[in-house]
Design a protein that fits this description.
Rossmann fold; 2 domains; 54% helix
């Protein structure tokens, strides 16, 4: 495994983090997080970061590398990920990358899709349109001109919604048509990929259970603390599922019960967009997991796959 790299992907709450942790212990690996929100410091509960105890046992990379007041780009992720891979492999250890941020995973496997240039005037107009209507309304506009992109992009992902509409206004073509050239036949970098899949009903049950646990662990207080910091949260950080809904609650826009239900609904929508993205990935070894499948059974499957023949 020292010469190979393992990537574990799956929708949110699929069990990929648990598998990465258990496997890392077994093969003395280090873990790279591929998550666009786990990069933020003090955003722990709502992003389902590995526990402090887990981080004491395994060396994790790309956690807590940005302030909530900052924006975080795919370019920055790739730079940090490349540095982490080199650092881990210099120790002769296997690399396990794990996450569900599809754009980051795709960039890691295939490189960055540049696409057409940018236009600040168009972006300014789109942001003004959000203020006048809503981000949801812009997402509906995207669905009308590029349903494939709209299915992949979450309702709260302002940055990518604006980019997709910007490309359409610049070129008259949907961004998904440009991204077709980005679907390469095989990933670069010698990655072996494991994907975890469950029945949608089971995924929904696990998502609901995770949201309940986050509330019990103090998500509301975590958001209050973040909002009280001297530097305000960036739009990117505030748009994270779990945080956006609790912020709405704290601003008096909805009850806590309604906010919790919104988190569950938005997380299930996000899982749907993840499934859509993952269908485009090549060379994935999919594990279709039974509802009663134990972590030990999943670990055994993963170990069997990575053993050198």
């Amino acid at each position: 495994m020292a010469k190979n790299r393992l990537l574990i992907l799956g929708v949110t709450a699929s069990g990929k983090g648990r598998l990465a942790f258990e496997l890392a212990k077994k093969i003395d690996a280090e873990i790279i997080s591929i998550d666009s929100m786990k990069v933020y410091r003090r955003m722990d509960i709502g992003t389902a970061k590995p526990s402090k105890e887990a981080q004491k046992q395994i060396n994790y990379h790309l956690l807590d590398v940005a302030e909530p007041s900052e924006s975080f780009s795919v370019d920055r992720f790739l730079s940090l990920a490349d540095t982490a891979v080199k650092e881990i492999e210099s120790k002769g250890k296997p690399v396990i990358a794990v996450g569900g941020s599809a754009m980051y995973i795709k960039a890691l496997l295939y490189g960055i899709f540049e696409g057409p240039g940018t236009n600040e005037q168009i972006r300014k107009q789109l942001k003004e349109r959000i203020k006048q209507t809503s981000l949801e309304e812009l997402h509906k506009q995207l669905a009308a001109v590029d349903p494939d992109a709209a299915e992949r992009i979450h309702l709260n992902d302002e940055k990518r919604i604006i980019r997709a509409l910007e490309v359409y206004e610049l070129t008259g073509k949907p961004i998904s048509s440009f991204q077709q050239q980005f679907d390469l036949p095989a990933p670069k970098g010698n990655w072996k990929i494991i994907g975890l899949r469950r029945e949608k009903s089971e995924e929904s049950r696990r998502i609901n259970a995770r949201v309940k646990k986050m509330i019990e662990e103090g998500l509301v207080d975590e958001v209050k603390s973040l909002l009280a910091e001297e530097k305000p949260m960036s739009d990117q950080a505030k748009s994270a599922i779990g945080y956006a809904e609790i912020i709405n609650h704290l601003q008096g826009k909805e009850t806590l019960e309604k906010a919790i239900e919104s988190i569950k609904i938005n997380t299930r929508r996000f899982a749907k967009s993840q499934r859509t993205w993952f269908k485009t990935f090549k060379n994935v070894n999919w594990f279709d997991l039974a509802n009663d499948e134990t972590p030990e059974s999943i670990l055994a499957k993963a170990k069997a796959l990575i053993v050198d023949k």
